[in-house]
Amino acid sequence: MTEYTGLEIAVVGMAGRFPGSSTVDEFWDNVLAGEAGVRRFTDEELDAAGVSAERRAEPGFVPMGGALDGIELFDAKLFGYSPRDAAVLDPQQRVFLECAWHALEHAGHLGGGREVGVYASASVDTYLLRHLWGNPAVPGGLQPLDLLLANDKDTLASRVAYHLDLTGPAITVQTACSSSLVTIHVACQALLGHDCDVALAGGVSIRPPVHEGYQHTEGGILAADGRCLPFDADAHGVVAGNGVAAVVLRRLEDALADGDTIHAVVKGTAVNNDGASKVGFTAPSVTGQARVIRAAHDLSEVDSSTIGYVEAHGTATPLGDPIEVAALTQAFVHPPQACALGSVKALIGHLDAAAGVAGFVKAALAVREGVVPPSPYFTAPNPETGLPDSPFFVNREAAPWPLEGPRRAGVSGFGMGGTNAHAVLEEPPSPEPMPPVRSRHLVVLSAGSEEALEESRGRLAVHLAGGGQELADVSYTLRTGRKTLRHRLAAVVGGGGEGFASAPAVGAATPGAATAVTTTTPTNTALSEAWTGSGDRRDVVFLFPGQGSQYAGMAAHLTAEEPVFQAALDECAALLPFDLHEVLADADRLTRTEFTQPALFAVEYSLAKLWEHWGVRPSAMLGHSVGEYVAACLAGVFSLPDALELVTARGALMGALPGGAMVSVPLGADRLDLPADVSLAASNAPNLSTVAGTFEAIERFEQTAGVACRRLHTSHAFHSAMIDPMLGEFAALVGRIELRAPRIPFVSNVSGTWITAEEATDPAYWARHARAAVRFSEGLTTLLTEPVTVLEVGPGNVLTTLARQHDLRGGAALGSLRHPREDKHDLDTMLAAAGRMWIAGVPVDLGALTADERRRRVPLPGYPFERARHWIDLPGAAPRPIEVVEVLPQPAEVVVPQGDLGKVTGIWQELLGIARIGPDDDYFELGGHSLLATQILARITAELHVTLPAGAIFEAPTPRRLAARIDELRDDQPEQDDEFARLLAEIRDMSPEELRAELDRERDAQEISQS
Known about the structure:
The protein has 1011 residues and is α/β, with parallel strands linked by helices. The protein is 36% helix and 15% strand. The strands form eight sheets. The protein has an eleven-stranded mixed beta sheet, sandwiched between helices. Strands 19, 20, 21, 22 and 23 form a five-stranded antiparallel beta sheet that branches.
């Protein structure tokens, strides 16, 4: 059992792309197989890299290297880049940005909520030097500052922080070959100093053209045959590689407390410099390397005899390898019985600024998996290294860990110039069991496009088919650890462990609404049936049902599994004169008004409190009959104790009245012709009403109505003349209660429009409310003046059914609890509603769904970037157009705009690098930014002779609106412009003598006026 010092750092996420592997998992597979990513380039690749036949024929030319495929591709739209800006962005910046996204996703920490620091390094930017500088193919309009910002190493960390909205320190670290291992050291120090709570550290090295090969020179560090063989007798140099990697780090105690998946533990790190005690600036130093390794051991409080593997710098150079082994031998003051030695450079080449983090990832996977990675190239030790006389060995095949006890490994990175770094890693602690508390879980996905969302769905389905992860953890990670993008998916999972609950079928989709789709996936799970859609932020309106919607066992599952709901229900129960929990389970007592109304109130109030806990707060409310009391209580008109006292008294007074009958009539209230002994009880929908009266009166009405009526299961004739006897006593009771003006707007059942403060605080209003017809349909019309999400906060779906008989204006009507005849779990309905609201743009707090429950963040498939070619070829190469991405859908027939609109559109198309821009396309969605905006405004001034204010594009971000702004400015020009033009015309008509005489007269007049 390992002992922790309190200074450990957990590795909670990793991502990378390397020669021969596009993910960390593929990389590890290649490491275990000894599969090299360094390869010989084809003639076509050498041609594209501009390598001439003459150069290929030169002695010492080696057409090999560790190339990274796809560096010209980038998901520019996702990150908000125009095609023009993407084409000049250093591929190191774009690839590292995508890698950072994937690393934080892998850790489950891309969703925000914590201070995240960024520590990054990059190699020299050869894209700027070889592809852009002086190249006529570079798009016009770019200023030197544009190219500098797109390619300077200094912007690497800040660019990630900006695009991923990370608010911790953002620091670019440059120490040559040790850079990315130093970023890990700096990140660990920042975490221990509480500069941030999560740290992203890594590096990137992409030096285009990546298929160029290299020139070997005798005595140089580059291998003559394109093979890097660290510590081998045949070693004679290194091979260049390209790649990127990043790790996500947290303080170990925080990672354990928050349920992070821990891949390895950093026991300690150290950094130093050789100083001048070596033969030259670029030479390595035994003393410097030994000191940094010993320092890392001391800071880790780790005995060197317990370290079973070292991921060496391992450049395979005649000078470097012997010095490194000598430094290790010197640093391991208590030598282990056996310690394996390896270097990832043998497989992927030397990744320069990314070499350290590549070795770190390999070592982290080794201690996690308990496997010593193989070095299959190894034949015999380099005699200059002294390996046979040291505790170190190089294994040709993958091997079990050589030592007992916690698996520990060292990682070295040594930079030209003498900055040395070393880290000590340890196997991760065993994860604490976290059984699920709830039986249902909400799984969500989002993406920048429908296509990416479908790809994400498929990847997740394949991943889940492999098993091994709790659905509760998958749900938690997706809800809290990912970016929320426009196109969204939600599904309810769980229930018997079989996977995903299906979404109900719906009709035609409306813009911004969720739709049920069916897609076959490899796993045949119910992920293939999930709500999908996209929507802008939308308000939510709460509807509270009245008597008649209750049923025995309503919300019983929430009482068992949702502590917030249970606490609110218990609070209500303590204020009632009967056992609420017994009543909720008793079908007979729930038919008695004195129990039904307070029980309904308690359930609906508790549901509202649960929705509030989940971040769903109403912009307005509407209750049906007794449901209005819930709305009034939430709005602050009544306190909870007073509301329950009133509802209990109301139910008791009504229950003591003679019985009556109510029927539902398929006619609108305005089409009813009622006899004197029948009252309109409710106007529910344009073609649906409820009437009430004595049993005899209702029976006569049914016989003469001329339409099919449906008798309701009620005990009394509510909202009819039969209620009159209780009104005086009830008004007096309300008069003793403190009433306050509502803080949240709600619609009155009496008027069908917004309740006023005077009404809400008038006891007579609440008496009228018990007697008057429920103007529910009119109330819905008041609410539905714009698209909203209508949420029924109560049992069943009566009110959502009524709402759908009105014009929802593209909104949705959702329920909170199941219908009594539905055989499903309450959380199926609640979570489906939460997911659909999130899809529609309602700011649901997805993390709050399980805020009371400890869950684990687990690795899941990463985002499927939709990469397109954004690249400037080498000067002189066969020209290829910059790929144009149609950012927004265009109509089938595009009408070319004329006049100012046409000129504005043309300027946008040229400077954004987009061939087709519509008059209503948004500048910022097209990838525009503030620096480019100044160029656009300058062009407009030059071509249209109108000076726009600096913020014009922010105020008018579409071509049509900007053209309208230009027209407004022309109309607003002062009248003196016309006078000035008239004077200029007069001057042009004057002869030189006339003009001179006029100027003399003007001068004389001024002298007289000043004397």
